[in-house]
């Protein structure tokens, strides 16, 4: 949420009339994930990008699971 998109304000009244309150079509969360995705691409050799990204996100998910107190049953 570092840069506001003022161009969006031109269309905002029409979107509110069609879709309701503006809070329900916020895209900031998904645009931030694009940043995470691009940072993960840096560590790939670009030959097997899907595999490298899958492994990286799986590793990040494991770390998040452990850091939040999660554990696995034996």
The first-to-last residue Cα distance is 42 Å
Shape: elongated
Poorly predicted runs are none
Order of helices and strands: HHH
Radius of gyration using CA atoms only: 19 Å
SS strand fraction: under 5%
Number of strands: 0
Largest sheet: none
**Structural class assignment:** mainly alpha
State the share of residues found in helices, binned by percent.
55-70%
- The helix count comes to 3
Let me know the average pLDDT.
79
Q: What attributes characterize this protein structure?
A:
about 70 residues; mainly alpha; 3 helices
Note down, in words, how this protein is organized.
The protein has 74 residues and is mainly α. It is 61% helix and 0% strand. It has 3 helices and no strands. The chain has helices at residues 8-19, 28-41, 49-67. The mean pLDDT is 79.
Task: Give the helices and strands, then pairings.
Blueprint lengths: L7 H12 L8 H14 L7 H19 L7
Structure summarized in a few sentences:
The chain is mostly helical. It is built from three helices and no strands. The relative contact order is 0.07.
């Amino acid at each position: 949420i570092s840069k506001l998109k003022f161009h969006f304000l031109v269309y905002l009244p029409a979107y509110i009339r069609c879709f309701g309150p503006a809070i329900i079509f916020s895209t900031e969360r998904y645009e931030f994930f694009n940043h995470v995705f691009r940072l993960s691409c840096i560590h790939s050799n670009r030959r097997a990008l899907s595999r490298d990204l899958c492994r990286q996100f799986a590793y990040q998910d494991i770390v998040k699971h452990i850091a939040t107190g999660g554990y696995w049953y034996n």
